[in-house]
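Consider the following input, taken from an annotated entry for 3-oxoacyl-[acyl-carrier-protein] reductase FabG (Thalassovita gelatinovora).
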Amino acid sequence: MIALVTGAGSGIGAAIADRLAADGHTVAVNDLSIEAAKTTVARIAAAGGTAGAYAADVSDEAAVNAMIETILEDFGAPEILVNNAGFGHQAPFVDISPDQFDRMFAVHVRGNYICTRATLPAMLEKGEGYIVNVASQLGQVGGVELVHYSGAKAAIIGMTKALAREVSDKGVRVNAVAPGPINTPLVEALSEDWKSAKRAELPLGRFGSPAEVAGTVSFLCSSDAALFVGQTLGPNSGDVML
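Applying the prediction step yields:
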């Protein structure tokens, strides 16, 4: 299958791209930075996989549509979409500016919507497809000084459930993953006080790795997950137990 992974130039997205390529899928690697995307593609190629690099801001509809057109020319229509693009920002609620709030929702929520809207029609026409949205456990429980981030991730969980109800009977399975703290640049950018306190809260006592999240995504994009519809799986070190 052809898989599009957004925000796959580093961190969790890069690990997901690596894993889907190892699973035998052709991977369209998206990132805001073309150089970051090319780095992931080169690693996949060195491992014997097939991938292409595509730069686009997922919140920009025209840029996403142009990217999809290029992917169609290069490989064909994506049958797997992993909406992973995102970023972190930590600040007390009263210090979050409207521009910061809007940008958080633009990338995480609007970006999810635009990328899904651009790829879903071909999946519906084929009668098969997999959409995995990368949320966060903070979208389930919230996070101090992360109101805008937590709110955006909660919106993604709600969108996942609603779209799953709409398209599951048409052959497209929609699910989400809600990782806990993962050792990525996004988490490393948070304060040391926050990270130390968070580790102490976790039953496992450690943050996860990007590869551990990628394994969950791989599962959701396989026939082994045939009964998983509108679910939010939590590779979160025990931070949230549902």
